[in-house]
Amino acid sequence: MSLEPVELRHILHKNPELSFNEVNTTKLLHKNIGNFNADLKIHTPFKTGLLVEYKVNDGDYFLFRADIDALPVKEENEIDFRSNNEFMHACGHDVHTSIMYAFLKQVSENKYDKNILFLFQPAEESGGGAMEFYATGIFDKFNISKAFALHVTDEYKEGTVASTSGVLFASALEMDFEFKGVSAHVAFPKEGKNAFNALRIFLDECEKMPVISESPIVLGIGKIIAGEVRNITPDFAKLETTIRGLSKEKVLNYCADLQINLKKIEQKTGVKFAMKKGAHYPEVIVDDKLFNDLSKVLSTKFDFIDCGYKMTGEDFGLFSRKFPSFMFWLGTSKNGERYGLHSPRFLPPDSVIEKGKNIFTEILISQM
Question: 294 — alpha (psi -120 to 50), left (phi > 0) or beta?
Fold first, then answer.
């Protein structure tokens, strides 16, 4: 017997695993999906995650995707299925996975006449799992005509569907800025080259950069490292950031402007710098035709909102560049409460799993 979707959600929530380490999550999904009474083929081309193939004819495939990784956040919810380690599904990926699982179960039971790939993707939160999984070449074996995904949020009331035509989520680049100077006693600062001072000047210069409302850029700073003791000026400082823009190209152009400023600061202070790139997610693009078609279909049964773009980053952007795609927010808020994504209190209700499954089903039926 396989787990019910809510049972699966509770196990996943209690046992979250970080990006590229979703070993037990993958095993749990493999075991339970393998127990479905259906002719499914499970592909495991990567060390974690899996691609489930449902094939009923010689036609093309739809791709549905859910992410399975968690975050290094310590949960603050007092619930029976609270995380039992230092990590948490604070972005709702346990719900995404359970919705996909429920949808796969329904498809296999109802035997819909459409070929479908169900991707349980690792490492959305860090490291670009979509790109790593795609690089295995597994998708080259299939003629994929359309791709679909969702993301839960408590910005909207439970059951709301929110999307837009064109850019839905921003391109997101992980970028570290490192500053290397020379330490000195605080009583003799001129004997050193203060790395933190160079970092501070850099942030001041960033504030002065012009803001273009039609093409916004976000420089999000999550972590600053500098110094060893209180009476020695730092010889090393580091910013860990994420840069967001409405296209991958605009983000890279912004980085080029930052580099110009850094070179000026190096000349002024003598502090050297390094820019170290991490994963770079393309923007998520919703296909115009799919949006026009599905907004009409979904509006008949669900609350539908054209939400415009968000500066959220999501590596489904890779698939949206490869295939005509439709992604949407799924509202989870009950009674107006809101904590936000990545909060230690973010907790979509179990009831949203059924709603997500039903929305995926409507999408499938309308596009067959």
Answer: alpha
CA distances from 232 to 37, 187, 190, 196, 269 (A): 67, 9, 12, 11, 17
Q: Could you tell me if residue 205 is left (phi over 0), alpha (psi between -120 and 50 degrees) or otherwise beta?
A: alpha
Of residues 203, 154, 152, the one with CA closest to residue 179: 203
Return the C-alpha torsion angle 139, 142, 146, 152, nearest 10. Answer: -40
Which positions of the chain have pLDDT values less than 70? none
Q: pLDDT tens digits, residue range 10-39?
A: 999 999 999 999 999 999 999 999 999 778
Q: How many CB atoms lie within 10 A of CB 133?
A: 24
DSSP H helical ranges for 209-287: 248-269
Q: CA–CA separation, 66 vs 174, rounded Å?
A: 22
**Residue 152 buriedness (CB in 10 A; 0-12 / 13-18 / 19+):** buried
pLDDT in the model for residue 340 = 97
What pLDDT does residue 214 have?
74
Task: Report the C-alpha gap between 168 and 151 in whole angstroms.
Answer: 11
Cβ atoms of 61 and 316 within 8 Å: the answer is: no
Which domains can be identified in the chain, with CATH numbers? Answer: 5-165+287-367 (3.40.630.10), 172-280 (3.30.70.360)
Which residues participate in catalysis according to the annotation?
67, 125
pLDDT in tens, 89-139: 999 999 999 999 999 999 999 999 999 999 999 999 998 999 999 999 999
| CA gap 239, 133 in Å, rounded | 29
pLDDT at 335: 86
Query: Tokens representing 102?
Result: 């429920």
Q: How many helices (H) and strands (E) does the chain have?
A: 9, 16
CA distance linking residue 96 with residue 329, whole number of Å? 11
Length of the chain: 368
pLDDT at position 347 = 98
Residue 186, Cβ neighbours under 10 Å: how many?
13
